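Risk register update: the risk of archive-format incompatibility is retired. Evidence:
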Amino acid sequence: MEVFTFWLRADLVAICLAVWAPTSVFLEDVRLWLLQLGLALAVCGSTYGLCDGLAGSKESELKTLDRNRMLRTIVNSAFFVWCLSLTGIGAGFQHLWVIGALLYGISFFLAPPFARKYPDMPWHFQSLNGWQEDFHVTVALADLAFIIMAYQVVLAAE
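Archived output:
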């Protein structure tokens, strides 16, 4: 279980950095970039501190979140909205930002803290796919919109 807990913590902390990194493309002021990095590291620290070793096979059966998981969800969600807003400001809220933001919004409600309460859909096959996979597909599509947008920003800067 120790190895599992280590990788669970690493995964959850890495998500904070994955949310922060794309935002940095859209920050032109170095002071704002450093502030954003400091905030990302604070979110990483709080996420690490709010992780617990209780995750296991029964984790997916939880219908409500305990205090630490709820706090972690709130901290990470607030940080995500902050990063999304900074990206929108930096990119001028163009159509790709709107598409990506909508897809991220949908994925938020497909995320594990919420999807545990939903019944399986017709396209879900037990032990093959479910809400977790729907979440990742939606995030991947949103990421694609933001990658294309970041690429356009970098090209325009040259």
